[in-house]
């Protein structure tokens, strides 16, 4: 059982750590462009990513065979080889070697795996002198802190703090002067290298065909750790194995570029079997073969390899670029993720290699915005793997909090849910004004700070549909509208616009009344059983209406209906077909309208009166791959002249329930978005997602009330004569 | 001196993969990685350049690897010694003095256009310490021993890499662990020189 953490408090501390905030915001700003610059001399980044993914996928599907070959190669070259089931076996094995080989001093380089199993503590307890040699890792060890990033372990510290740790460790006054500190570290750590008996490294890759391990570093500490001591220990996880020498290139063309925005790190070192070492024995210089011990660590990795849903985690090369672009990590840093590996990939590794309780405590820090999937060298579907682990955890433990369980029951029953929403519209009256809830009761105070939450509409869309249906044209094109909760109960006016635009296309618009929430809120928590119940109700509701197309003007609903529903019923003898038939009809509103406008020759470039920018919803851009169509529609609309903002596809911070639960993280994301909107000089920001609309309207209402937020459906409807 | 491959030119290189046409890329990327590059026509000129660099970095003691078989390295050592530098070439002496030496000298087998890296065959202990312990390191590189990219570099290496210690060096040792400020020379050399020997288009293939 993992220790119960007060995550909100930890997050709060990080958000108020000025040093951290300054470092992270500068880094987050610079990283994307610096990364792309490093790729400027590559023909196709996608091609390289595909090659890496394919090679890693092949390997994980043949992991036993590859591991056997790796073992045989090491042994044939005179290295010792040991397969460790877990950390305890590693520790026992290493302590035994230290005893037999009379090891007193140890230097380490580049080994996340050793941190994963808390190796250093064991050496220290056994009275052995052990030192990390990567500068950042060394400072953190001295300061008794944990790395906050896999590649930049000390990014959360500034030079003054570093100088403090130097001074404390060396018992001399070290000024906060970076070159001076670097030279001091060189002097101090050089002694460690020269006097060490054993060097321990991890590996960025291990090659089965010749037994070589590869290490990339910029400092060169791995070269010294593998050169000076008379014993070299390699601690390598199964996921680092690759079949052939040439496969290493597939990692190395991406890892340095994604990790540190370099075309290559200063040192790329491959050690294959025991190599010579020259050292003094009894006062005389002698040359010997270095003892090499290779430990292949399982610790949950083999289970992951044989898990068809999770084995894509083997495609990770630990570059940490997923953290660098994560809107949450770049706000809170790595420490709040707990354990060793941080960010989205860290949640997955924690769940697979550590324990699921620890995973469950911070897994909802992934908001599923999918930004990481656009840069990951090995194309690891990080949000999907987190989703899978979440659902497994919930299946075993149920939803964590009582209110979640209540939410689950309510959402599964449309009538109760909708009754409560209607009651909500009455109950909120005293606190709502102009469509916003400005002053919620005290215990909600943190949630409304810096932004207003929307009120539930007096009359939901479903009560207005009958009137609109009267205007349906006679048509062979039957379109069913799936509104989703927000467009039904919070923004019914936008639903009216959707219907208007569709009718104007010549479609007969249907609205099956039995439809309910798409199920995303419970699916997002990992509750697939309730999700299936809801999905079945929706599928049934639409099957009977005879529509050719099902339109959703909420990308999250559209993604759930078309992608997740298919997944939910995979292998189900009855429902797989029904879900497929349903899902194949689902179309996102703007992409459908843009297609029809094009067919009807209505797409054009009009320079309208209102300078309008567009915010890409995460689910729309990266979930559905739709980003050109909304812009084409905005160019067509009479009232708008389009202008692009900076980072239009960066999450606004709403992300479903996340924006409410972690409002303290959500708000800085919203503020950044608003700054980017303001910088365009636009008076309107267009969206194609009601959740983004809710978030942006709430933020702009308090921070820039002169800027309007409009759904594209509303903008288009304005041009239609009624 | 023990090497992964005793004769890279005949055993690993082929004209299609290894030739001088990647020079512009190599030069640009190596400089971008803070490597310092000097082009010279022949080994005699290279030896003179090595001496100039030794003077510039104020190195009175030099450690070198590969003098037994490498004429370029051997010639440079002679020139350094004649100029009064203390030069160590024997592997035990190199091991003993490398921590105090001001400059290390060794061979690079080929360069990589895409990254500005040089491939170093460092199976022997002495080849590794000359490149890591002194504050400055010079490699000698043949002007036409270049590959296009990392993929082709690994094609070349895979022909001969059966055992040992092999890798790339791309500029000097660096860190950005304090405030992401680039700092050179944290563990290895703070200056990395590539002395490039030969003229464009000259053949390196026997």
UniProtKB/TrEMBL annotation, chain A:
Gene3D superfamilies: Alpha-helical ferredoxin, NagB/RpiA/CoA transferase-like
UniProt KW RNA-binding keyword: no
Family matches, as InterPro entries: 4Fe4S_Fe-S-bd (IPR017896), 4Fe4S_Fe_S_CS (IPR017900), Cys_rich_dom (IPR004017), FTHF_cligase-like_sf (IPR024185), Helical_ferredxn (IPR009051), LUD_dom (IPR003741), LutB/LldF (IPR004452), NagB/RpiA_transferase-like (IPR037171)
Top-level lineage group: Bacteria
Signal peptide: none
Annotated Pfam families: CCG, Fer4_8, LUD_dom
Residue ranges of domain 4Fe-4S ferredoxin-type in the record: 357-385
A Gene Ontology biological process term: lactate metabolic process
Record keywords, A-Z: 4Fe-4S, Electron transport, Iron, Iron-sulfur, Metal-binding, Repeat, Transport
Sample GO molecular function, one term: 4 iron, 4 sulfur cluster binding
PANTHER family hit by this protein: LACTATE UTILIZATION PROTEIN B
Protein name: LUD domain-containing protein
Native organism: Selenomonas bovis
Classification lineage: Bacteria, Bacillati, Bacillota, Negativicutes, Selenomonadales
TrEMBL record, chain B:
Residue span(s) of domain LUD: 26-197
Gene3D superfamilies: NagB/RpiA/CoA transferase-like (3.40.50.10420)
Pfam family, one: LUD_dom
Cross-referenced PANTHER family: LACTATE UTILIZATION PROTEIN C
Protein name: LUD domain-containing protein
Source organism per UniProt: Selenomonas bovis
